[in-house]
Amino acid sequence: AMLVFPSMKSAVSAIAMEAAYEPTPRTRAFDVAYQRTPRLTVLGRGSFGVTFAVRPSKDPQMRYAAKEIPMAQLSEKKRREAFAESELLRTLTHKNIVKCVDTFLTGASLYIVMECATRGDLARHIQGQRETGELFSEATVMTVFSQVCSALAYIHMRKIMHRDLKPANVFVFGSGELLECDVKLGDFGLGKAFEGTTMAQSTVGSPSYFSPEICRSKPYGRKSDIWSLGVVLYELTTLTLPFSAKVVPAVARMICLTEPAPLPEQYTAELGVLVASLLRKDPGDRPAAAALLQDPLVQRYLRDTGLLNCSGSFGSTQSSELAASHSSGTFTKSMGEAIAPEHSGLDMVRETFRVYDPSGRGMISVDKLVQVCLGVAPDLTHSMVVHLLAVADGMHGDAVDYGQFLEWLYR
Question: Are 289 and 226 in contact (CB under 8 A)?
Fold first, then answer.
């Protein structure tokens, strides 16, 4: 099959932007709310636009990052669609997702204002480690990976793809060694929210992190993000890309037809198996992000980072609401919204249940059902899930029909 790289035009645009950057005409709404820092501190450039430092007019001591996306080439309808998509980012509340604090659609530009990373991006830290001549410890690798994995599972549950997952879009917050820092997923590739379909047709992103299905110009879904996550994990362990060449077509060919070199011997076989599972050529063979959270190695580091009980995963407000509704008539509804908000994550939850049902009988143990619920909805407590099963219709015994359980939950 012919290997095609659809985003060459985007790559050329990015190169042109890198050569010379001129701010687009500033508009009243954005300029009233935010002041650009002296000398226009450019934080990053990409195929979508330029990110620069700003300060809120009402609080000049604060510092944010604003992404300016030129939209003159888009129709009015497409501009509003892009703005609606950027507004969706403001609803994401997770410890490991860069917070979107403001959005503006003003004339020919879209502005997305975000919290500013205190320690730069993960690409910078990988480069710094490469210069030392030493590899990251497995603890550092898995601490970073588990946080990104948790963020990815969160957005996938909300039917959002990232579409440009790479170290340059993972941001570092905190002080000290990377092992001690928080990392946050950001700079979403304006990935389309899935409206009735799980397949996206347009292509964005960075070639070295593209999945085989993108390289072959096939429709792609959330498993494409999983491939990119695998490339990031490989790069964290080896400090090199699994597939690298001087020209884009050669990169695409390697991605589709070759296997990466094994990990260095200092890493456990368990980690090697995890990397291999993410870089399977067939998207159907890759694990879902929610299923990854159940991986024993990932679980170990989620526990160490506190993410298994992270109130930021679904927001402290929702956590309080769940606790308050524990003995009320709204308990079942609240539980359903936490496990799969507004039905948006039902397919992902079913897929996670199937991981624990290798026989395909549609039945799993009560312990496994509780484990899955706690994995996809970290705000829940063990007692909440047990209480849910106690009030469920016909959900008694040592094993539970998880299909029937979901039907009851969303009846």
Answer: yes
